Amino acid sequence: MKTKTPDLTDEKVDLTSMIDVVFLLIIFFMVIAVQLTSKIEVEIPKADKAKIPKETGRRMEVSIKEDGSVYVGLVPHSLEELASRVQQDKVLMPDFKIYIRADLNTPHEYVRDVMQACADSGVYDIIFATFQ
Question: Is residue 76 in some structural domain?
């Protein structure tokens, strides 16, 4: 009795959906990597008593460069634009908070102005970026 061996040439494996998934994952990780590494370059000051907050929550990241220029994320803002943006976001998220990253050489006057713009918009929960 002769047994028939299976012919593997008749069956084809379709990898199209697997390739699509792999490309989607690659695009996803590229987008996330860009967002995680995209920050305005500021030299963060050191503080001996620096602590990591227990609850950071959702915070708007505001960067202040040495020359006093203010950025929300990567977008430059004037103090008026910052106050308007904070006010709008406060309406959408009542527990809205601010995270300030000021350069080591930024005069306190610029930091105070940003804090005042946030306070005028009704946001008082602010933390500052420091290294220990």
Answer: yes
3-state secondary structure (DSSP) of residue 20: helix
Q: Is the pLDDT of residue 123 over 90?
A: no
Q: What is the pTM of this model?
A: 0.65
CATH classification at residue 67: 3.30.420.270
Please, is 43 exposed, middle or buried when counting C-beta atoms within 10 Å of its C-beta (0-12, 13-18, 19+)? middle
Specify whether the CB–CB gap between 97 and 128 falls below 8 A. Answer: no
Helices (H) and strands (E) in the chain, counts: 3, 5
Instruction: Classify 4 as helix, strand or coil.
Output: coil
**What's 3's DSSP letter?**
P
Burial class (CB in 10 A: 0-12, 13-18, 19+), 89: middle
